[in-house]
Amino acid sequence: MKRKWHVLYYETEGGVCPFQKFIDSRKDREQAKILSWISMLEDRGPNLPRPYADLLTDGIHELRIKLSGNQVRILYFFCYKDYIVLTHAFRKHTSEVPQPEIKKAQMCRADFLSRFTEKKLKEVINENL
User: Would you tell me how many other CB atoms lie within 10 Å of the CB of residue 27?
Assistant: First the structure.
């Protein structure tokens, strides 16, 4: 049986979801493309190759999408064997991912992991089904 990853959108403790805000700001056609790439990530997990995804540093990964001629990056991390947490997205203007964007993803990961154990995460997901 093929393993299926669970993709989650990071939310702050106050309920702000940077990635959802990004998706909501895009046109329908771009939203469809983003969601199709997330679906590929959900199917392939860490086996999704370049040019679709890449490991940046310290367990922070990027989903690499071109939208309307712009390079867009969605940063994410893996946790608890089954989960992929999308932290945020941004338009890339330079050849490398800016360090402040990586630091932002690392801070999101630290916050997420401080609030959710694997057991608590499963409970929260089951409550929302």
Answer: 10
- Decide: 73 and 64 in contact? Cβ < 8 Å: yes
Domain-wise residue ranges, the chain = 6-127
Cα(76)–Cα(9) distance, integer angstroms: 9
Q: Is the pLDDT of residue 128 over 90?
A: no
Q: What is the pTM of this model?
A: 0.93
pLDDT for position 28: 95
Instruction: Please give the C-alpha separations between residue 88 and each of 2, 4, 110, in angstroms, as whole numbers.
Output: 27, 22, 14
pLDDT value of position 2: 65
Q: Is the CATH number 2.30.120.10 carried by domain 6-127?
A: no
